[in-house]
């Protein structure tokens, strides 16, 4: 199973990062994806395929302020 933010998730292995984020309805323009300690650039979302042993961290940015 792929580990996402510390939680094991099924039906993720074999998907591209882009498909994984789309399935989660994640805001692609405001997210940083790290796979096994390496940042995946937005241009690589379609070609980076997740494997069963991968550890994925998703970091979202939220705007705000005064």
TrEMBL record:
It comes from the Bacteria. Pfam families: ThiS (PF02597). NCBIfam families: thiS. This is Thiamine biosynthesis protein ThiS. It comes from Secundilactobacillus kimchicus JCM 15530.
């Amino acid at each position: 199973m792929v580990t996402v933010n510390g939680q094991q998730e099924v039906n993720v292995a074999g998907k591209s990062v882009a498909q994984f984020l789309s399935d989660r309805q994640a805001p692609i323009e405001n997210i940083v994806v790290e796979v096994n300690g390496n940042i995946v650039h937005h241009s690589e979302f379609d070609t980076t395929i997740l494997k069963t042993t991968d550890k994925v961290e998703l970091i979202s940015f939220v705007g705000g302020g005064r």
